[in-house]
Amino acid sequence: MTAEDFFTQEYPLLYRYALYLTRDPEISQDLCQETFMRWYRRTDQEKVENPRAWLKKVLSNLAINYFRHKKVQYKIESGFDEAETSATTMNQDLVRLEVEEILTWLPWKEQILLKMKMAGMTYAEMAEVLDVSIGSVGTMLARAMKRFKTLYEGKEVSNNNEVSGRRQAAALP
Amino acid sequence: MKCPDEGKLLLYLENQLSQDEYQDTANHLTNCSVCSARLAELRENYDFTAHNLAGLWENQKSAPVTGQQKVWQQIQTQQQFNKRGVRAMKTKKFAIAAALVLALTAIGSMPAIQTAAANLLQIFRVEQVDTLTMTPGDIQKIEQAIYDGAGSIDIEDFGSVQSVGESGAYKIESQDLAGLDFPVKVPSLTDESATAYSLQKTPSIEVRPKVESVNELLKMLGSSYKLPAALDGQICKFKMGDALVSTYHDYELIQGPVPEIEVPDGVNVKEVARAMVALPIWPENIRTQLESVGDWEHTLLIPDENPQKVSINGTQGVLLDHETNRALVWQGDGMLYILQSQLEKADNLAAIAESLR
Hints:
The structure holds two protein chains of two kinds. Chain A is built from eight helices and no strands. Chain A has helices spanning 3-22, 25-41, 51-70, 80-83, 90-104, 108-118, 123-130, 134-152. In chain A, α1 crosses α2 and α7 packs across α8 (134-152). The radius of gyration of chain B is 29 Å and the shape is elongated. Residues 84-121 of chain B have low confidence and may be disordered. Chain B starts with 5 loop residues before the first helix and ends with a helix. Chain B has ten helices and 15 strands. Chain B is α+β, with helices and mostly antiparallel strands. The interface between A and B is large, with 61 and 50 residues.
């Protein structure tokens, strides 16, 4: 397979994964570019057992570093929603947006961890890209799930100052 | 066994514990009603989250894909730059700008020659790096000014330009580092070691000017300065040594001997530089910057849209700070260093730079 064939085959999947993590098309493109650059710089590509998983792992790592440095909260706006295909109904969209927004009230590390988990990454992979132990992944994930549910149900989270003040608006019907 | 924390319970639920740990936890759960209640709550949180977030990833699989062609082109462009050793330049426009400045610096280094010492060479080494703020608009203005003054020009009319020597990057191993011509420096902020090394070979550029044609061009552009006839066909050389590229997890460090310009002996570089700066082709903001360069023999200008001066252990360096790509360039002890990253913040880059040992 030529370098271009490989790119053509893998870009859409990788881009969607990047968009899923970052919500930002531009950033997603940049992260994909850097990931593929790293792939093409490898002189031992044949040693990589599963190139697709490798790309996903490297991109996750780049995304994490991006957030670590940006310390950004995810934003709901960005052109993404207009571009959404009509295949999803209004109603599903609304639910999805609510879920998206609730996620943004979590610390970025918990957001990205939940997303990676839902995208099927293994504990070992998550530990590797976050550079922590599997035990820590468990602890962070357990905390993130609890926090997500609490916020979704509109409850106040007590003794937690990591979540931004916006959570007051979290109460949902 | 003491009560396991939430993280361990989750790993238990997900079957991620070692056999022994799993058994210990299972035993504990049968005896501890508090923990089995905690496990139930955890399972509820897990199911709730999975149920609500599952759609997010499923939806994403049909999201429109953007930028595919653009990204592929950028990858190819960047790969070509890598081959040519212009790693810090992100866009094609700036590579052209760099080439232009390089060409002008080279032209700027071929002047007044004393025939007596014609065979001896002067060697100028970069002793400082400085910023040159230059936008794509400025480059257009310069191109337009040259066109207005002299029409469409071909660099080949003004002399031969040859590249001499090997070009390309070669992977090397860490045990080969000791054999390099220079002592290799490594960041000491963390004990992280480089994941890969390669040696970047860049050919020297040799310019043999056709003095008559160059003088004609200078005249057309409105300069009264003339290169001396004795310089005709003499070699002026722009030399880059081999550079070591160390790839770290989040950044890349490039180090190599500083570039050198060799010109025939007796050439008055300052005089030539003054003549070049006086050419009426420069937009005002560029001219002001060029005029402020005090030491043309030893200064490497780094052109960029918004280069910033930074201090690295007391030496001036240049930071190119773009949204998704940063590069820090500085020199010290006869070496030129470039630190580049898509991820590290400018402050971090400076800290890494200062930690080189």
